[in-house]
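User: Earlier you gave me the apo prediction for this protein. Now I'd like the version with NAP bound, so I can compare the two side by side. Same sequence as before, with the ligand SMILES added.
Assistant: Got it. Here's the input I'm using:
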Amino acid sequence: MKAAVCTAYGGPDVVEVRDVPAPIAKPDEVLIRVFASTVASGDARVRGARFPKGFGLLGRLFLGLTRPRTPILGTELAGVVEAVGAKVKRYRPGDEVFAFSGVGMGCHAELKAMPEDGPIALIPGGFTHGEAAAISFGGTTALYFLRNLADVQPGERVLINGASGAVGSAAVQLARHFGAHVTGVCSAANAGLVRSLGADEVIDYAEADFARCDARWDVILDTVGNASFARCRKALAEKGRLFLLVADLGDLLRAPLQSWASGLKVAGGTAPERAQDIEALKILCEMGAFKPVIDSRFPLDRIAEAHARSDSQRKVGSIVVKIGSVGSE
Ligand SMILES: NC(=O)c1ccc[n+]([C@@H]2O[C@H](COP(=O)([O-])OP(=O)(O)OC[C@H]3O[C@@H](n4cnc5c(N)ncnc54)[C@H](OP(=O)(O)O)[C@@H]3O)[C@@H](O)[C@H]2O)c1
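And here is the structure of the complex with NAP:
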């Protein structure tokens, strides 16, 4: 099968499309023919070995010392079930599915095997393969931080810093769905989009610093990495919660003490890959509460360009990679 193989840590050109052995489904696995995937910020981060400060050595120990241990990147996919293992009951060949392999990666390939009880669900009605492939990375992250950690309540004021990225654009939509009053922080160019996703207010970061406004927020979700507790302290309401999605080691070590000393909540961490979250996102998509924003589309043989676009840190939503010639964009 064809796959994009990351041969080393480095720039976009370390990714090469090659023929590699196809996976075979184990008894409890489904084999998915992949029609679409994405080059998420996580893929570009792994390829470039760009780990948050303090995580350089840990990142390489976990992901591979001199090159990615899992050379086929790609955290999310959409496609069709091609074959199922002998014990599989939930899926049949021909089922149209989307899935989130997360740190397990491997979605930049024509075929991907995944456990049937893993983060897989049927594609929401009306979604193309490209749209379905872009649900999981931003969607699971936004869901985990806003619902599980922040427990956002109707009427609360939620600020999303980095509201136009894959995570931010999902977070704006989900915070709105949870009944929050949503403020999105983005560039002027993306203000209209962020409003259209459900933000009640938009702050252009080139014009104003949200942390110095008179307003206060119950929840601040930082998807950029420039909203430390020291910066945000005065922008948090009583019982406010600050979530640092791009926390460095120092931020994570300081967070419990900052929470204890201030009576506020400061937390970082990594969103997990859970089957129930993928199922929840499917339902949210079908309700019209969430639709991923697509930045651009590239065929697999131009995946290096997709990595370069992700490296720009200017992408708006997700970059879709189209694999094979059958799937819908
Ligand atoms: N902790 C976790 O579990 C977790 C999970 C997923 C991702 N992440 C991390 O979260 C971060 C965001 O991921 P992503 O996929 O959403 O990234 P992304 O799609 O690459 O984000 C790009 C967006 O960032 C915006 N941006 C850049 N600088 C900004 C600034 N100073 N203020 C506000 N917005 C700014 C850009 O908007 P403009 O062009 O308008 O500036 C662009 O639309 C990444 O670092 C990723 O590694 C963490």
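For your comparison, keep in mind: The domain at 2-135+292-322 is CATH 3.90.180.10 (Quinone Oxidoreductase; Chain A, domain 1).
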